[in-house]
Structure formats: C-alpha cells, structure tokens
Amino acid sequence: MTESEVFESILGINEIQVDRVEWQDQSLHIYCSSIFSEALCPNCLNKRQVINQIYERKFRDLPITGKEVYLHLQQRQFYCPDCDRYFNEPFSFVDPKRTMTRRYERHVYECCKASTVLKISVQENLVWSTVNEVFQRGARKEIDARPLVKVRVIGMDEIAIKKGHRDYATVIVDLEHVEIIDILYYRDQNKLIEYFQNRGNIWCETIEVFCSDMWQGFVNTAKAVFPNATFVVDRFHFFSHLNKALDQQRKSLRRQFKDIEEFKRLKWVLLKNAEDLSEEQKKKLALAFLLAPQLKMFYEYKEKFRSIFNQPLTKEAGEIALNQWIEEAKAMKNKYLNNFLYTLDNWKDYILNYFTHRVTTSIIEGINNSIKTVKRMGYGFRNFANFKQRVLMYFA
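RESULT FIELD:
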C-alpha cells in the first residue's frame, strides 16, 4: 500500500484522493483532489464537465499522530451553459467558504463546551476570533435544534450577573420539562410584561401555573400576562422567612446571654430539618431548649409548619391545617413569629395553591448553580449575549 493510499484510508473521505503528503515539524499537509470527473449544477441539476478554473483551497482537519493536519484541495469551478453560470464543486465534508472540515469544526465546538474559547484557541493553535465564530455557530445550531414543546408550567427567578452588584438577570424555566426558556438581562417588571406580550397571546394563554418567589414584580407580571395561570409561591422561599424569624429569636438570646455556651454556634443546627440532625446536634439543641423553652416552642412550630407542606394534603385540608397552625402560633405571642405571620397572611392564597399544583422553583435554584459554574468556566462574561448563548447551549 502506497503512502497516498494509507492516508486515504486514515482520512476516510470518499470524495477525494490523496496525491501527495508533506511532513513538517508541527504539521502534516495533505494535497488532494476530487475523484469525480463531473459535477451537478445546483440550479438545473444536470451533469457538467466543463471546468472554468482550478484553484487550491486549504482547510484544517482533525490531527493525525499529534500533528496539525491541513488539506490542500484542488477546487474546481465548473460552467453550466444552460444556466449560464459558474459553480464550485461541492463536498459533503466541508462547507463552502469554511477553513475547517465539518468534523474538525465539531471537535473545536465540543472542546469549547467544556472549556473557554481562549484556552481552545491556544490548545488548537487557532485565532481566537475563528474559535469564537465556530463556537457561536455550533451553539446556535444546537439551541435551534431543541424540540418545541407546549409550555404549561413556568417559573421565574433572578440571578446576579456580577457578584456584589444589584445587577440581576431573570431566568425563565419550563418547570414541567425542566428546560430553560430564556435568560433576560433585566428584572424590571415593565420589561418583563413587554417580553411576554411579544411572545403572543396564544403562548401566554396556555400557561396554567406560574411559580416564583415573593418578589412583587414577578407576581404583577404574572397577573398582567397570564390570564389562565394559577400563581404559586415557592415553598422554600416562604420557609426561609420562617427560618429568618427563628434565627432572630436565636440572636436575641445571644445578645441577652453572651456568656452562655449552649447558645453559641447554634444557628445551622436550629435551621436544619429535625430528621437530618445527628445525635450530637440533637443533644446540643436539647441543652439549649432546657435554658430557653420559648426557643424550643418556636423550633417545634417551625418543624410542624414544614410537616404540613410535606403531607399529601388537598388544598382544603391544607388550609385547615395551616389555619390551625396560625392560631397556635399567634398564642405564642412572639414578636419575631408575629412578623412571619403577617407576611404569611399577605401571601396565604398563593401559598395554599402549592397543595393543588405541588410546584417549586427548586429546579431553577439548581439551574442557577449550574449557570454560576458556566460563569466561572468563562472567568466572567462582558457580553451578555455570549453568556446567554453559552448557558442555553449548556442546557440544550
């Protein structure tokens, strides 16, 4: 077997033949030409053999034995007398006007998905702008290839674009299919309303359930654009309000009794679910409760409140259980708990909808953590469009 035949076998491209191979220190240059004597006119689809000109076209391919591979193809331009037009011979392994084979473009794109454009440009010895263009093009294809599904249940949450800045983006998620619908560079109520209105009345009318935290802007947006949707407050967000009230009670004890060891390093033990406590943590709580009976009562109310939402109750049964809990909690006459009860009363109707639909934004919290990973991988993004595209590609 000749050297040309060996490289034809390695390349595995049936449309070309290898004429010669040139070895260099860091690269391998393979000179090749088409195996066909004619080409189809893309306009009339007739076979044409009249060649107008031949020129060399160079493009990059996958490496061989660790060396960069460049294909030098004798590109032919044909003439069609019926159409009176010139056309270049097409090849399936490389797109027109590209400097890389399709498979090498795919390789670069897959590398970029797991790393940064800068790192891959250095690794592959390519210009940054070329690698970025390949990544952007591949990401668009992958995002556009996502199957269209009917969206019925959506959730919204914010994520900080820059740490330490009040610069929030809005993440919109299809909670039913666990898929990011969009990421918006703002969290402004009027802009959110305009965004959903631009998606059309039909799209908005198909939304049956909307879930978010207790930010009024999200609630007002849902009321304005989703006429058929039931609004559900995320359970973990209003649980956090109760935990905050419990922690305020702990802080009050620490201020009163600064030297009592049992009240020190108690925060995360108090906020932890009872079933997740270790034996040592249970003993720590028991000692604190002996000295502060009201703290024990507050903790028990916290656990009872959580257990109500963990039970498979109907909305009616859930409302009865919640009302009973509210009456018992009021009897405690604790100012921190009363603040929570005031908040609970304002959002009660939306909170009760949880018993009907059982949806939360916990999925979005997980997505937001992954988005932060994407940010770290890119060492931050100065261009929001690039950031958005990488995130959407990551979840495609």
